Amino acid sequence: MTSIAHPRKAARTTTTAAAGAVAATTAVRTESGAVALAVLRIATGFVFLWAFLDKLFGLGYATKSAGAWINGGSPTKGFLGRVAVGPFESTFHAIAGAWWADWLFMLGLLAIGLAVTAGIALRPAAAAGTLMMLLMWAAEWPLARFTSAGEPSMSTNPVVDYHIVYALALIAVALTTAGATWGLARWWATLPVVRDHTWLR
């Protein structure tokens, strides 16, 4: 005699299977999102680390060997000395090549790069990195269509340039605890000073 499945039991079975499939899909998406954020974090951190290494050793890309910091070059003189646009032009010219500006810039690049790549201290790194990016945005002042000499500024976007994108990436990885995947965030969070001061996470 053929058995007939009870409609309510069949419905419960179908509902349970559907819920399991949704949970599995959500778990995969969550893991994929965590991996994507980890890749974004590491790539962003490497941007800062590469800039530090190139300016320190003069790797022949943005900085030639003769202009390396270890060879007596200034990491800020070239960039800030060439500022030719915006309301802070004279201010940037005044600090270009100053020893304290060089040290702050280089230590900032190193600290932000190491922290973001390793996935630790993402909140202070995001704050410092965002400030650095905003200052560099102000130096290039993409809002202006022409330089102080009347030449085209070559700005491609008056508001959102790559400095803003880097700043947003730093903020995103800090707010999403992206250091927990492929990073040292879990270990970092166990340190007593970090447990007592959550802003260090």
- Report the β-strand fraction as a percent range: under 5%
Q: What is the N-to-C succession of helices and strands?
A: HHHHHHHH
Identify the overall geometry. Answer: globular
Characterize the biggest β-sheet.
Answer: none
**Which stretches of 5+ consecutive residues score pLDDT under 50?**
none
State the helix count: 8
Average residue pLDDT? 90
Radius of gyration: 25 Å
Oligomeric state as shown = single chain
Alpha-carbon distance between the termini?
66 Å
Helix content: 55-70%
- How many DSSP-defined strands? 0
Structural class: mainly alpha
Short description:
This protein has eight helices and no strands.
Note down, in words, how this protein is organized:
The chain is mainly α. Helices cover 63% and strands 0% of the residues. The chain has 8 helices and no strands. Helix 1 packs antiparallel against helix 4.
Give me some keywords for this one.
201 residues, 0% strand, mainly alpha
Architecture blueprint of SSEs:
Elements: H1 7-57, H2 77-81, H3 89-95, H4 99-118, H5 122-140, H6 162-175, H7 185-189, H8 192-196
Helix pairs in contact: 1-4, 1-6, 4-5, 5-6
